[in-house]
Here is the input.
Amino acid sequence: MSHGVTIAGTGSYLPEKILTNDELSKFVDTSDEWIVTRTGIKARRIAADDEHTSHLASKAAERALEQANIAAEDVELIIVATITPDTLTPATACYVQQQLGSHKAVAFDVSAACSGFLYAMKLAKNLIESGSFKNALIIGAEKLSSFVNWKDRTTCVLFGDGAGAAVLRAAEEGEGRILATDIGTDGKQTHLLNIPGGGSACPITIDNAGERLATLAMLGKEVFKHAVTRMKNSANTVIERAGLQAEDISIVIPHQANLRIIDAIASRLDVPNERVFVNLHKYGNTSAAAIAIALDEAHRTGEIKKGDKVVMVAFGAGLTWAAAAIEW
Ligand code: UT7
Here is the structure.
């Protein structure tokens, strides 16, 4: 008899270098006061030049595997969610497979921006439930510092680097399980948040090299409005599918983009702020890595305990959104 799919381990990795708002203000026309008031971010991590997205991903993955007590060579599926791959091809997951020594694993990337980790979770859950794989390593990893325009104060203050991972496998009796998932996309809004250059639509050439087109561009106010509505709806979808009420939810782990967005969602879901996990003051917005890192921190600090009902909800470029309800 199937008991669903459980999260057997979590892990995260943040690069050592911390860039505070005050340090950033020395080379960008901004201030700690503006960034904290508008976003809640106080610092972000910056990966070293020779530290690629795959390296961040592999370090987070090793910690998750250790906790799950699964050997790297026994991993059957690796999905890396990222918008900052090491290379356009092959997929970052292929580098991760090699770095971990998970040579039997099928490995591919998912590109769903900040919703990517929860897209990967839904895919992995369904693939395990269908019997295709016994276990899966899902990773959200980003080196956004390589894709921000450090001359654009409206975006560069927001993002940071990092990775988080989770190991999924078939649940045994009495173990926690993923109760419900939801994912969605609105391709009419691709213009609101994108990296316009570096793809086939706009290759970087000698003529446009100075325009920094391979960096994140965002219409922040528009994105903000969509973020609140889409995340509220997606969270409510999984809460309903899981048969939960607001008061059953032990902790909400929302995408870490802006404290004002997080507060707006908490109030719309009727969940008090103390049951909403926040770490964006330390790391900024790490896109696909954000929820994965937050899940690991909440788990390792004991904020998530056995039997807790956890709701994760994300939103990002695409536009994409996703949510998951879990019984821990
Ligand atoms: O992860 C994917 C999802 N992403 C998001 O969810 C992000 C959603 N958007 C946001 O979080 C917010 O829209 C931002 C934090 C990006 C911007 O906050 P805002 O309250 O919408 O500010 P704004 O863009 O309307 O800018 C207000 C003012 C402008 O000046 P004027 O035109 O009022 O004179 C900007 O030029 O703030 C100025 N400004 C800055 N000032 C100091 C913009 N960026 C900065 C800055 N430092 N870094």
Notes: The mean pLDDT is 97. The two ends are 19 Å apart (CA to CA).
